[in-house]
Amino acid sequence: MPLAQFYNVAYDLSEPFRVVGSIQDHHSFIGRVDLSRGRDKARIDKFEPTVGAEGCSHQIDPRDNNTIYGSIFYGRLAKGKIDNFSWDDLDMLIPEQLPGDEILRGQWVSPTLLSTHNPDIVYHCMQKVMMSRDQGQTWEEISPVLSYNDSKN
């Protein structure tokens, strides 16, 4: 019996809706859940690979449920398409490192959120909370350093 443990499950609002999650020791998968025959007879399509890594968070753009954001180890963030997914077609959304700035450090699992009021706004956490107003193309820091890790060591 194939089993998996999902972390950080997310979903979209399409019908049938899709559920996405990351799997321990693997990457992320997405599948459709069809409730047209009733909740007690839900059918789940096969799960397929999608953006994201083990233990990461996902966000599906509510305006375009084919666009998904997924965090990857150590603070990296990727954006891609759900349909016709390809690792080669991902946009890596990495905040620009400015001269003299402290090196950005992300956790193994770095949280990511889309604003419910404006899905162009992406929040991504490293040792500081970062915000993008243009779907991850440019970033600004919106918090002080929240880590106890001394970057000089």
Structure commentary:
The protein is mainly β and 153 residues long. The protein has one domain. 0% of the residues lie in helices and 36% in strands. The chain has strands at residues 6-11, 17-23, 28-34, 43-44, 48-50, 58-60, 67-72, 76-81, 91-92, 112-114, 122-125, 129-132, 140-141. Strands 1, 2, 3, 4 and 5 form a five-stranded antiparallel sheet that branches. It has a four-stranded antiparallel sheet with strand order 6-7-8-9, with no helix packed on it. β1 and β2 form a beta hairpin. 27% of the residues are buried. The mean pLDDT is 86.
Put the structure in a nutshell.
This protein is mostly beta strands and 153 residues long.
Instruction: Please provide the ordered H/E string of secondary-structure elements.
Output: EEEEEEEEEEEEE
Average of per-residue pLDDT values: 86
User: Can you count the helices?
Assistant: 0
**Broad shape:** elongated
Number of domains: 1
Broad structural category: mainly beta
**Main sheet record:** 5 strands, antiparallel
**Strand percentage, roughly?**
35-45%
Rg of Cα set? 17 Å
What is the fold's blueprint, element by element?
Elements: E1 6-11, E2 17-23, E3 28-34, E4 43-44, E5 48-50, E6 58-60, E7 67-72, E8 76-81, E9 91-92, E10 112-114, E11 122-125, E12 129-132, E13 140-141
Antiparallel strand pairs: 1-2, 2-3, 3-4, 3-5, 6-7, 7-8, 8-9, 10-11, 11-12, 12-13
